[in-house]
Design a protein that fits this description.
Strand content: 35-45%
Order of helices and strands: EHHEEHEEEEH
Oligomer: single chain
Mean pLDDT: 93
Shape: globular
Length: 161
């Protein structure tokens, strides 16, 4: 299932937003704010790229028919590999979000681009649940949960910039 969402950081340039989202402290705070536990955030830079890895256990914000498969909590691993800014200051990342122990993931791209005095943050990807017969029914629920998680982090981020 295709996944696309965008958010605005009004009044903040790309480097300010990138500085926030590449902060281990902020990403930990955002996970805590979302109700996650057992949080492990690492930020590693090498050769011009920065990899942010977040592993957390969080409440399964999913319908009951999905919770029967996942349980009341899910362990999520999120990896973002950000490149250096291009000539216009745009930053892009490869993104992977996996539910550990479940056949569900989102693969995609994130982009931070200067947009009229602020920064537009977009995430485009594909949500895949590899369970015969019911995977396609679960994919929209996984996408909704991922969007909710991103939206919560962006809203918290707006208060920190």
């Amino acid at each position: 299932m295709k996944f696309n969402d965008s958010y605005e950081y009004a009044g903040a340039d790309v480097e300010a937003v990138y500085g926030l989202i590449s902060s281990q402290e902020f990403r930990t705070e955002a996970a805590e704010d979302a109700g996650a536990t057992d949080i492990d955030v690492s930020v590693e830079s090498s050769g011009g790229s920065t990899t942010i890895t977040i592993v957390r256990t969080q409440p399964a914000d999913l319908p009951d028919f999905v919770k029967k498969l996942t349980g009341s909590t899910v362990k999520v691993k999120q990896t973002e590999t950000w490149g250096e800014p291009d000539a216009k200051g745009t930053r892009k990342a490869d993104v992977k979000v996996s539910i550990i122990g479940q056949p569900a993931e989102m693969l995609g791209k994130a982009t931070l681009v200067n947009d009229g005095g602020g920064t537009k943050f977009t995430v485009d990807g594909d949500v895949k649940v590899s369970i015969p017969f019911i995977g396609k029914k679960i994919e929209p629920e996984i996408a909704r949960a991922i969007k909710g998680s991103i939206r919560g982090e962006v809203e918290l981020g707006k208060t920190r910039i």
